[in-house]
Design goal:
Helix content is 53%, strand content 8%. With 440 residues, it is α+β, with helices and mostly antiparallel strands. The strands form four sheets. A four-stranded mixed β-sheet has the order 5-4-7-8, with helices on both faces. The chain has a two-stranded antiparallel sheet with strand order 1-6. A two-stranded antiparallel ribbon has the order 2-3.
Length: 440
Amino acid sequence: MGLKFELTQSQRKGLFINQTLKQTISILAYNNIELIDFIKDQAMNNPLIEVDQYIDENYSTYQEYRSKETDSNAEINNLIDYVKSPSGNLYDFLLEQARFLNLSTLDFKYLSYFIYTVDENGYLSQPLESICSDLHIEKEKGEFILDILHGLEPAGIGARNLQESLLIQLQRKYSDNKLAQLIITDYFNLFASKKWSLIEKKLSVSIKKIQEIKDLIETLQPRPGLQFCESATVFIRPEACILKTDETLSIIILDKFISELKINSNYQVLLENENLEESKYLKAKYLEFKSLQNSLQQRQTILYRVTKAIVELQKEFFYKGPSVIRPLTLKDIADKLSVHESTVSRVISNKYIETNYGILPYKYFFNSKIGDKDIQKSSTYVKERIKSYIKEEDELKPFSDNSIKLILKEKENIDVSRRVIAKYREELNIPSSSKRKRYL
């Protein structure tokens, strides 16, 4: 059988995404901070993009508007919520202390190396054996240098793990409490997992005494280096703000300073002069500029529409708070706006909205339905109730997951399984009832 080559034509259906559409889809997923970085990158390759006029925008116009329009009695958070800010340099702080110690030049060098193996939490980032190998010293010498590091401030610095850090702090601050030191040294795992009855039997001490030691341990610093963390300040810049008055809810989209992209005036004349050699290059860059401008405007439009839909469907929340938040899905918003669910997902991804109840992620407003058809509540509402009941519980007799299940059924006619209660409690980072229990 011979092979034969020939040209044929055929039709087939397929989805092809051009560069402009791909850019628009990508921009939808960017939050304001990511979008600024993206525009800066674009400006590096396109001289027509004017960046200085909007990249350094300080939101002063928005702040003035908000101060005029917002109810004076409303609780308002700052536009920028700082999650973590640096308070000093841990390494400089430790090295400064080391310089005042009576050490030989060689030991100071060893100690300096140990200091630079400390991570931002204050723990050694490498095993002692590995550090000794790097320095070509015996383990005994390494332990000697490590003891010196443990003597520096803050207490607990340079520990190999949480247990050692707590023990160092106990020895430094509560040296007379031998029972606490014994429990952390020999019964740490039982203590941490709150299997106190076993400790009670082994040491012949009362549960109340162990409770006192737990209270003491909670005054210590589990991550002694964190206060000196020099990581760049992490902050949240919301995409939108909802201003509440007695009768209306106003939506402000906070990317106006980004969306109003402008052409660099220095190139405007050159762009209009077709006789210049640079004209062809500039026209190509102008098309890129218009494509970017169009993508930004589309982002602003869909972001406003999604935000407006959320406000309309969660209106009660903006007046009464989390206790009345209703079930809401991506499909609900997609159907309302006649767009695909994936579009809504991209729009709300990693973005925040400022409300009278704080700066919240867009995803906060999307909740699964809990309960039967007659009484349906959002998962967020159920979580808020769990949190509320646990906050008000008797610490000597904390509610079990099953108890919370029964309370929800009895008081609010919400029927959820104990397993769901446990799942939500864990998502809220709330320990089980056995670990919340106090003994005095």
